[in-house]
Every structure is written in C-alpha cells, then in structure tokens.
Write a structure and sequence with these properties.
This protein is of the alpha/beta class. The protein has five domains: about 160 residues, no CATH class; about 180 residues, Rossmann fold (3-Layer(aba) Sandwich); about 120 residues, no CATH class; about 210 residues, no CATH class; about 90 residues, no CATH class. Helix content is about 45%, strand content about 10%. The chain has 37 helices and 21 strands. The strands form five sheets. A seven-stranded parallel beta sheet has the order 9-10-8-11-12-7-15, with helices on one face. It has a six-stranded mixed beta sheet with strand order 16-17-18-19-20-21, sandwiched between helices. The chain has a four-stranded parallel beta sheet with strand order 3-2-4-5. This is PD-(D/E)XK nuclease family protein.
Length: about 900
C-alpha cells in the first residue's frame, strides 16, 4: 500500500533555504524549518499566513470576538457565538468579511449586528484581509492547503513548492491490539525506555485515548505537553460539576458528584452511589458543607463558590477566576442560568494554557498536519479522525476535502519512525478505519485486519506465539508488549469450588462481566434494600407470627420507608408506603398458609447473616426453615433458601414482576443457553434433590408485589383472601421436579388418566375409547421426541405413530387427529413448565463443565471473554457494560 511520499523536512529546507520568506500552511512545519535555519537571517524565515499578518503567534480570534461582543452588546451568548462562527468561517473561505451577506438564509438581525462589531475588532482575519507580502523572493509550501483568505496575503509572484515528491510512501503495517489499555501501555513503555522529547503521540483529542494516555504518562512520571485543555483541567472540570450539583434537584445521587468528591479527597464508598446526596448518612461522609452550599446557592457569587472549592481542594484556580472576570461573571450570582452560560462558553471555546514544552508531544489528529519528532505513535486511526463534512454553502466542499486529505497524508508520514497502533474491534463491532484511507489505498476493506497488519495480543501457547510473531522490523518485541510470566497467587483470582445462581447467570451471559463482578464492589440500590428488608420481615414473621399485629406491620412499613429514604424522592413516599404495606400483607397471607408447624425435619441452622427487622424489635431468629444457607462443593453450588415449607417444598420471595413457569424453565436452558439466563429454581432443586433423593420436589416463587394494582383499585382485599382456594395464585409461580425421565412420566398410567379425565374435550373423547396399554404401546414403539415445541412433537415420528395407533383403535375421524394433537400439546406444556430427572442430570454435567472452565480462567490459563456459551451477551444483564471494550468473542 502506497501513496505519494512527503518530502522530509530536511529536504524541504534544502529546497527553500535560498528564499527570504517561506509561507507554509502549518505552524509546526514552520517551526521545524526555522529550527534548521543554518545561516544568519533578518526577520521571519518560515511562517504561516496568519502569523505573518498578525505579527505574533496566532490567537483564537473567535473567542476574543465573543468576549468583546458579549461585553458591549445585549445579545444572547449562543446566538452571538453562532453568528461569530459563521462570519469568521465565511470570511476564511470567501476572502472578505461582508461575503456572508450574500447568503440571506444565514442572515438575521444578530448576524448584522455582530458583523459590524467584528469588523471593528483587530482580528487576525482583518489583518489578513489588509496585509500583502512585499518580499519578491517568496516560496509557498503546499499552496492547495491554504484557504482563500490565507492566499490573499501572497504577492503576485512566488515559487510554489510541492510538499510531496514523485516517490511512493509505503504505509507501515497497522499494529492491532486487543485493548486501548494495551496500546497506551506500549506508548508509555517506549517513552520510559527512550527519550520523551523524541516521541510524539497523535490521537483524536475527543477519544478515550486522550485521558488514558495523559493519565498513564502522569502515573509513570513521564513529562508531556499538548494534552488537556483549559476546560479539561481536572480541577476546572470538578469546579464546574460542583456548580451543576448546586442546582441539581433533591434527586442528585452520590454517584453524580463522585468525581468532585474524589478531586476534593472525600472518600465515599461505592455502595452509596445510588443514594441521594441530601439523605446520605453523616457516617458515610461529612458532606454537610456541600448540602449547606446547595441550600444557599442563590446567596453566593461564582467567585464565592470558586473560593470555597479552592479552600476544599487546597489549590489555586486564578486562571479560572480571570476567565470569570473576562466573562463578566465574577460577581454574578451562582444561578442556574449563569452556570449554563459558563458551561456553554467552556464547551465552545478553547482558552490558552501555559505549558512547559518538554517531554512527549500529544497532537490532535484533526488539528495537526505535521509533527516534528523522530518517533511518532498514531493511536486509534478510526473514523473519528475524519473531519466533519462542511455544512455551510460558503465552504467549497471539494477544496476543503483536498486540504484535509493532504493534511492527513503529511501527518501519516511525520517522524522517522511511524507506529500505527489500532484496534480491530471494540464491543464486538469492527472498528472502521479513517475514511481518508479509502482515497489513499487502492483496495477494499472494512476493518484494519483487512489491511496489512500485525496482531499483538496475549501469548497463549508456543503455537500461537509462533503465529503472532512480528514482521521483522525489530521495532516491537512481543516480550515487551505482553507479560509472559506464569500467573502467581498475587496476580490471579482464587479458584472456585461452588457458584451461586446469580454468579452462574452472570458468567453464562458474559464471563468478563462476571470477572468484573468478582473484582469490583457494586453500589447499594433501592430494590436491593427493599428486597433485603422484605426477606427479613418474612423470616421474622415465620419465627414470631403471634407477635406481628397491626401495629407491628405499620412499624415494618415505617422501617422500610426510613431505610430506603436515601434512594427515593420525597414525592414518592406516599406511593412507596402503599406498596410496602401491600407487600407486608401479602407475605403474611401466604406464610399463614404454608409456614411449617413442625421443623424437626431440618437440623438447626448456623444463624447465617443478620435480620434488620428482628434487631429493630429486639427479637431472636432461630427457626431452621428460614434463610437457610447451603454450599455443596461436590455439586459445585451454593445459595440461600428463603423458606423450606416442608421437606419437598422450597419457597423464594421476589419483589419483581412475576414470570410464568414456562419462562422460568426457559431461562434456565443450557443447550443453548437462554439470552436471559436465570438458574435459581434449577440450581436449588438440584441441590435439594441431593438432600431428598427420589422425592417429588417443588420450588415456588412468591411475587409479593404482584397484586398491588388489584389491591389498590379494590378488586382484591388481602384480609379476605383464601390462599387454599387459589386466590393468591396470580402472585405465585411453582416449578415441580419429577424424579423420573420425561418419557417415563409421559407414558405413565397417571399421565394417561389425567389426559383422559382432565384434558381438552377431543383429547378426552379420544383417550376414553382406548386402554392404557394402547397408549403405553406408542411410547414402546417410538421414543417420544425431546422438545418443548408442540408442533415439532406432532410432526415427529412419535407424533405420527401416536395418531396412527389411535386412529387404528378409535377410527379415522377428524376429532381423533385433533384429540391426539391436544394430548401432545398438553405433554409439551408439562415438559416446558417442570423439571425431570434428565434435566437435573444434564444441569449437573453443565455445572461441572462451567466450573472447570471457570477455574481455568481464574488461574490465568484462559482469558475471560466477553461472550459466554450463548456467544453474544445480553446487554440488559451486564453490570459493567462501560468496561467491556474488548471486541473478542
């Protein structure tokens, strides 16, 4: 792959050394030529048109014009900024200030007002309009890269120097890494092992690479410049966020202000992230100063708040204070409108930043066309490097595209060594290379791996290492890029003997998300707090049913309201109180019916965990049938049973919406796994089978808020509910385990009699005319097809045999065919709503396989991929979606 070779700066200097003045389109190129000046020279040698006209370094004239306009005119900040931007851009591309008047659709009263005001300012554009080069010995490098306004300063006669030669530039291979972190680590290692002043990094300033490289270089104590701008300064950003917090509603959460608190050195555990700032307990952090500041924000000026921040952060933000003065906001009240103005200004304009120009140079891919460093790393190089298409009629799209693509060509060839560090995929989607490559490369491609490239990843074994060796340039040694050392106890996760249902579900959905679950703590959430308290109440009621009267129920509701207050808006308290009372009453109604009177079938529990309700009423918990913890390393499972109603019946309490039995069984599928994996009922029944083998078992989910709407509207009255008559069934989902294979169950006499006596009408009519031995003979002749799809069963060999045999006995009537189909549909309904011996056997094998794989990954033998057995993870069930940047599946 090749395109025209850019002339090295030394060669360019040789071609222009004899001229009195050299005009170039890019300031870094001018500086590079000036550094090579090897003879006495009077005045400027190489410069850009703007520097030449202004007689100084280029300034951000749009910002200076904005400051002048808002100081002298009563014009809204956004309309003023919009008008200034249009005027200066049109001036740049059409050559005169008044050119915008030709575009009536872009003219209004604000534009006309601002046009006159800008014309009175000493802007660089004005100086360019008025300035003409008088020297007769002038060279222009890259004439096509100059805008019409910049060309206006050129004399009538000048020498054009092409920045490209007739030779070809062979594009180096793209070096593909698996993560952005690996790319950043490579650059930092190079900067540490070499001279930072010899290295430049080109990246999209708005990409994730920018903060990552800045943070990594700082952590490694490697000097750099050209990085974060004024608004990106950590203290500036934190101060603006503090201002935003002051005007947030009472719903502002701790997580919303965590960056500010971290910058101020206030340590608040992540478990409080979802709690409202106004309700955070003082034991978590002393934030009374912040709450007081927010309550009286209208009494403070912006400078007052700035002083408060400086005091808390122990820093000086004098530059920010100066900028507030320029904006006329220093003594303005810290109202939401003024904060909005300040935020708009910071997001629209770049403020100058004093920097020490030493160390690694960080250059923005969209702003630079030349980088004068021996070694240049190019990071990302994706479609975000592409300039946005012109959206104004005064910009010649073709000319602008030419300028952009020539800048891109020159940029790619900056330095003696160029290293293109990219990713081939992120989040499972291919990374699209910068669109300018389409113009430069004569080949089709969709991603970087379609182009000449070298993959850099984890060394897995000798064969993989041999396949992924470098291209021989010697610039990158795999041993330097990847730590090939063996995992140690300090660098790997501990092995796993057993998994909970939630961990298994997370792992099956996304092994990498599961890995982050084990490494990172999760914040408390309202539904966690609610669920725990409801569970505590259910356990408390089973232990002390006679103690729980009307006043105790109300006290429990009060406790729920108080404990969840930090998560909730005050306006929601009434609604939540009603919800909590319904949940408490539903649990009482259900437990009155199923709580075991005799608990001798279980040994005493170990008192696992605590119970907030019991502590509130100063009562003990000693029943062995509630909150029963189990762990079985032989099976590889662990969990906590909410209630053991009897030796064959387990109960679990849920605050969420009800799922039917079909959904519960379907979510626990293993071949292939469901995209909404949930193994609770299957895992608990598998464990309980080991305690009570050869017994029919059941597992019931009690959705204690499911009847909320009916109770609130008066359709149901909990005090009158008869649980035995099924009036609570809409809140219950029960899964039954039958200790036999489904084929045995389906062919049994009891199933035959149930279909004959309770099945659909035509099913009853058909089977009432045959004997059980005729029904059982079908199963002996052709094994029943294992499926939960009734149509698939009907069309299977078993289905055809069943219909043929019944017709042979009853007669070839249409109702016989219909009756047989009804019977098979009922069999599939039973199959997909319950578990049988083969299901639990298969699940035990699945557990063994998952645990073996999990331990290989925990000990470092394999990576934790993003996708699990179902390949693509369900994003709704990811806890750490923002951390899953890896494209590998």
């Amino acid at each position: 792959m090749s395109f025209p070779l850019a002339k090295p700066v030394d060669r360019l200097y040789e071609e222009v050394a004899g001229f009195d003045l050299v005009v170039v389109p890019d300031a870094p190129l001018a500086s590079a030529l000036n550094r090579r000046l090897d003879r006495p020279h009077l005045g400027t040698f190489a410069t850009t048109p703007r520097r030449l006209a202004a007689g100084r370094r280029e300034t951000a004239e749009d910002r200076l014009a904005f400051l002048s306009v808002i100081e002298d005119a009563d014009i809204g900040w956004k309309p003023a900024a919009h008008a200034i931007g249009d005027i200066l851009q049109c001036w740049e591309h059409q050559g005169t200030r008044e050119a915008i008047l030709a575009y009536e659709e872009h003219i209004n009263d604000v534009t006309r007002d601002v046009l006159d005001r800008v014309g009175a300012l000493e802007t660089t554009s004005k100086r360019l309009t008025e300035y003409r080069i008088e020297s007769e010995n002038v060279a222009v490098v890259g004439l096509d890269q100059l805008t019409p306004l910049e060309r206006a300063v050129l004399p009538e006669s000048y020498e054009v120097v092409d920045p490209f030669s007739d030779d070809a530039f062979e594009l180096p291979p793209f070096r593909i890494f698996e993560t952005t972190t690996a790319i950043v680590e490579t650059v930092v290692e190079a900067a540490q092992s070499g001279a930072p002043e010899d290295i430049a990094v080109v990246l999209d300033a708005g990409s994730e690479y920018s903060p990552l490289i800045e943070s990594a270089l700082s952590a490694a104590d490697v000097p750099f410049y050209g990085g974060p701008g004024f608004a990106d300064d950590p203290d500036h950003r934190a101060f603006v966020q503090l201002l935003r917090t002051l005007h947030g509603s009472s719903n502002v959460r701790v997580g919303d202000v965590r960056p500010v608190l971290s910058r101020l050195g206030v340590d608040v555990s992540r478990e409080h992230n979802e709690k409202r700032l106004s309700e955070l307990d003082e034991s978590a952090a002393d934030l009374s100063w912040l709450r007081s500041l927010a309550a009286a924000a209208h009494e403070y000026t912006l400078v007052d708040v700035l002083a408060e921040y400086e005091d808390r952060a122990d820093c000086s933000l004098s530059a920010f204070g100066t900028e507030l003065g320029r904006l006329g906001l220093a003594d303005a009240p810290a109202t939401e409108a003024n904060v909005d103005r300040l935020t708009f200004y910071l997001s629209t304009y770049e403020m100058p930043v004093d920097r020490e120009n030493e160390g690694v140079l960080l250059a923005d891919a969209k702003s630079a066309a030349y980088v004068d460093r021996p070694t240049v790393f190019f990071l990302g190089m994706d479609d975000r490097w592409t300039h946005s298409a012109p959206r104004r009629p005064w910009v010649d799209g073709a000319e602008q595209f030419t300028r952009n693509i020539q800048d891109f060509q020159l940029l790619l060839q900056s330095g003696v060594e160029q290293h293109y560090l990219v990713q081939d995929a992120t989040g499972g989607s291919p990374v699209t290379p910068c669109l300018y490559f389409e113009e430069l490369l004569d080949r089709e491609y969709e991603r970087f791996s379609d182009l000449p490239s070298v993959a850099y990843g984890r060394i897995r074994d000798e064969e993989t290492q041999a396949m992924e060796t470098d291209d021989g340039t010697g610039s990158f040694d795999r041993d330097r890029l990847v730590d090939g050392s063996e995992p140690t106890a300090s660098t790997r996760l501990l092995g796993v003997d057993a998994v909970s249902q939630s961990s298994l579900g997370s792992y099956v959905n996304s092994p990498r998300d599961y890995c982050f679950d084990t490494l990172l703590s999760s914040p408390d959430r309202e539904y966690f707090a609610e669920g725990n308290l409801f569970h505590d109440f259910a356990e408390f009621y089973v232990n002390h049913p006679d103690f729980v009267d009307e006043s105790v129920r109300e006290s429990v509701v009060d406790l729920l309201v108080e404990e969840t207050r930090p998560f909730r808006r005050s306006v929601d308290e009434g609604r939540k109180r009603t919800e909590y009372r319904v949940g408490v009453d539903t649990l009482v109604a259900y437990l009155d019916d199923v709580s075991p009177e005799d608990t001798a079938f279980l040994s005493p529990s170990d008192g696992w965990g605590t119970n907030a309700v019991a502590e509130h009423f100063d009562r003990s918990i000693d029943s062995p049938v509630t909150e029963r913890w189990f762990e079985d390393e032989e099976l590889g499972v662990r969990g906590k049973i909410d209630l053991v109603a009897d030796p064959t019946h387990l109960v679990d309490f849920k605050s969420g919406s009800k799922k039917g039995a079909t959904a519960v069984v379907g979510n626990a599928a293993i071949d292939p796994p469901s995209d909404t994996p949930d193994f609770q009922a299957l895992l608990y029944l598998t464990y309980w089978r080991s305690q009570y083998p050869d017994r029919q078992l059941s597992f019931t989910f009690v959705h204690f808020l499911e009847l909320l709407d009916e109770i609130v509207t008066g359709e149901l009255a909990l005090e009158d509910l008869d649980v035995e008559d099924g009036e609570l069934d809409d809140a219950l989902t029960t899964i039954t385990y039958y200790p036999k294979h489904f084929s045995e169950y389906a062919s049994s006499r009891s199933t035959f009699e149930a279909l004959r006596d309770e099945g659909a009408k035509k099913c009853q009519k058909t089977l009432s005319q045959v004997e059980y031995r005729d029904y059982a003979a079908v199963f002996e002749q052709v094994p029943i097809h294992h499926t939960t799809d009734s149509d698939e069963l009907i069309e299977s060999a078993f289905g055809e045999s069943f219909i043929d045999r019944m017709q042979a006995i009853v007669g070839e009537y249409k109702y016989v065919v219909a009756g047989c189909k009804q019977a098979m549909r009922e069999l599939t309904r039973i199959r997909d709503r319950n578990y049988f011996e083969g299901d639990l056997d298969a699940f035990e094998t699945f557990l063994d396989d998952q645990l073996a794989e999990l331990n290989r990954r925990h000990t470092g033998e394999e990576r934790f991929p993003v996708g699990g057995p179902g390949e693509e993870p369900n994003e709704r069930y990811l806890n750490h979606r923002d951390l899953l940047l890896e494209g590998e599946r």
